[in-house]
Write a structure and sequence with these properties.
Layout (H helix, E strand, L loop, with lengths): L1 H19 L5 E5 L6 H17 L3 E5 L6 H8 L7 E5 L3 H6 L12 E16 L8 H10 L5 E4 L5 H13 L4 E4 L3 H9 L5 E5 H9 L4 E5 L14 H4 L7 E9 L4 H16 L1 H8 L4 E2 L5 H22 L5
Parallel strand pairs: 1-2, 1-3, 5-6, 5-7
Antiparallel strand pairs: 3-9, 4-7, 4-8, 4-9, 4-10
Length: about 325
């Protein structure tokens, strides 16, 4: 009898939460500073979600520690849907910081929806004499460790991309970690580093202005969203590929009706033609999920593969 009463109370609380949500502005945390792809994606998605929810969706940058500072804050937030996270897969910090996380990457979050998918672009400072990927590989092989490669942070898409590239091309860079795609891009622009695998929003403007030289898109056939830059197969490194995505997550224990309401707002956002055009202009695709359950299934299926990738590449936070 007590179990039945408890179940009924939980159900009533869940319905009440759904009826009162959102109760004021929603906070959308990201683990990177302004200027990178996560920040760009969060802000354009937040703007559209706010229209559907009828309240402000405020983006908060909590950079550092491989996105785990932002993740920890959301994991410990009240599970009412008012504080959510935009991030890539938790399998990555789990593999990078095995046993050192202050939250459980497998159990601390409820997947809401994927919102964008993209790839990385290999760019170099104009002073780099290599005019093609083949030439860069030749230079890197002849000078192991002497070319500095910027990374957007431990476990970021650029970090995994450069580690995968080293393995595929048989080269060795000196990888310099920065707290996000924006600072990493600035380091290449300043000439402090020479090479960067960047998420496209971080560098598209600089490519168009001729301040950075693109050599390859980290997809076998290239990307229609990033025209004029060869894919890895055409550029001379068949099989090399490195893609990423961003999704929204709520704290574990968030009532299902609230998760469904957040998903509805995210789905409306990525379906908006204006938002899709803005995301595509930065070399990514707006990609939603059919439901929170469908997104959760995708996250569960992809996790072991990403963990294995991180371990096989030796990528870690030192």
């Amino acid at each position: 009898m007590k179990a039945v009463i408890a179940t009924c109370m939980l159900a009533a609380a869940s319905v009440a939460s759904a009826q009162t949500f959102p109760n004021g502005a929603v906070r959308l945390l990201i683990g990177y500073p302004p200027g990178g792809s996560a920040d760009f994606t969060a802000r354009v998605v937040a703007e559209e979600m706010a229209k559907d929810l009828g309240v402000a969706v405020v983006v908060e940058n909590r950079p550092g520690a491989g996105t785990t500072i932002a993740s920890d804050a959301v994991a410990k937030a009240r599970p009412d849907g008012q504080t959510v996270l935009l991030n890539w897969h938790q399998a990555i910090p789990k593999a990078l910081l095995k046993g050192k996380l202050s939250y459980d990457p497998d159990k601390s979050f409820v997947p809401v929806s994927r919102v964008a998918t993209g790839t990385t672009v290999l760019v170099v400072h104009p002073s780099v004499t290599a005019g093609s990927l083949r030439e860069l590989i030749a230079q890197a092989r002849a000078n192991p460790g002497r070319i500095n490669a910027a990374s957007g942070g431990h476990g970021s898409a650029p970090h995994l991309a450069v580690a995968a590239f080293e393995a595929a091309a048989g080269v060795k860079f000196t990888i310099v970690q920065y707290k996000g795609g924006g600072p990493a891009t600035q380091s290449v622009l300043a000439g402090d580093t020479q090479v960067l695998f960047a998420t496209s929003p971080s560098v598209m403007g600089f490519i168009k202005a001729g301040r950075l030289k693109p050599l390859v898109v980290a997809m076998r056939k290239g990307s229609p969203a990033i025209p004029g830059i060869p894919g890895s197969e055409e550029a001379g490194l068949p099989g090399f590929e490195s893609t990423f995505w961003f999704g929204i997550f709520a704290p574990a224990g968030t009532p299902a009706p609230v998760v469904a309401r957040l998903h509805k707002a995210a789905a409306a956002a990525v379906a908006n033609p204006g938002l899709r055009a803005r995301i595509e202009s930065q070399g990514m695709d707006a990609t939603g999920s059919a439901s929170p359950q469908a997104f959760a299934a995708e996250v569960a299926e992809e996790g072991p593969r990403l963990e294995k990738l991180v371990h096989s590449l030796g990528a870690k936070i030192e």
